[in-house]
Task: structure prediction
Amino acid sequence: MATPPFHRKVVNRTSRQLAVTALSVFLLLSAGCNSGDGPVGNNPPDNNPPVKLVIPLSFPTGVTIPFAVLDTTVNPRKSQRLPLALSTSPPSIQETELTMKRGRVAGSVEFTTAGEIDVTVSSALGTALAHQKVNAQEDTSHREMSGILTGNNLLWNSSYLIIIDENVTIPAGEQLVVGAGTVVLLSGNVRIEVFGSMDIQGTSEAPVTFTAQSTTEPWGEIDVHNGGTLSMKWAMLTRGGGDESRAFGHSGSQPVVRGDHAILEFDHCVLVDNPGKAIGSQYSTVVLDASLIAQCDTGGEHFFSVVTAENTWFLNMPSLSPDPAEDDNDGIYLNDPNPGEVPSLLRNCVFVTGMDDAIDHNGAMVNVENCVIEDFYHEGVAASDKNWIHVSNTLILDCEQGIEAGYGSPEVTVDHCVLTGNDIGLRFGDNYPFYTHEGTLTAVNTISTENRLHNVWNYDPTSQQPVEGKIQITYSIVNDADYDSGVGNLQGEVHFSEEYLLMEGSIGRGAAEDGTDMGLLP
Result:
């Protein structure tokens, strides 16, 4: 359910803990075997390996190092959880078991021995899928940074380690340039304050890395202020956002990257294993492209900002702990529109596993297009407060509720979506009886079937009954007696392909309002 401003949720875990269906049992596929263009990104050129390991090339021993494994041949609409293992030769880390979800996995490790080390990603059968030679060093040349950066201190490169023991500032009118392969170590709670600009120029083979000097003391944040800009390309950030005194937003954690009246751009970036939220912004422009956010307190919380996220994965919020504390751990939280009322856009994104909502809309203006949402403890999409959210061509699986129009007056429209295997598919109302519920939920060309409790549920917690006229469903399949008679609606068993498209002979083929198939489009 969407979280009211400055209220925390009361969690009822029983139904989600006991709900186990066939949709939560996934195929174990060999990497690269289910190739083909999917709704999220395109296949790489033939000369690229199907599985890529992204990891810093050179770094000191004894610190936490991030990594990511990417399989860009996977169609993320196909249910896939692939067991992998990360190992080194000669041995320098304890072999790490991983689970790739819909083509992505990320984590962090500590190298205990120095030298040239081959890092390998293997399948459950022991087949090597990707590897990278790295150089773990006991003694490294370094430069220490502090205070206001000027002159040569605004140019960082991989020929030396950057060590930051106290806050540093990039003044207005100045630019910090960080070259490919640079590793930055920060002390506990230390911040980089950006009033000018920061340009991070990593590459796929030599990413830029930000991590903590100590494995027990997380660093703070990159804080971009009033008119400042941050451009990150192939950057990896881990062990950040640890200063609870600088908490931001509902989940009560510090952002790893914060923007206030700023511009934040992330291109092929990885934010992983951060105790804080990945990104926090207000009155800012935030752009995420082909990035990966995993095992952070939340994927991001944004107030009065324009957020554009494309081809980006949000995984495992807040962590891989067997029983992490639930604390508004959303994939992304969008609160109120920017002053210019430019909508935010989430396109071709994948959200898998979280303790709260995949997309929490609270008074914003949002378009969600061609996304995959799976395994969130509460909602796939939770809408509340005011304004609107439009969800199209999106697959939502194994959540407590697929799409919810909650408290306040949000206008929720759903077009060409599939919701299946959730507790509830489409919902008007929420669990907040102390708020009014005056919004609407409109669905067209959509399939909401085989959900565990309700395919459609209209229930206002204040009146404890349905509210007439709040749900309109047309040209859809919901197999619910209250809505089956809607214009163009069909009843019956739906037959899906692996990608949740309608198979030949299934009801709903060619029966959408626009003459295409109901449900997802290719």
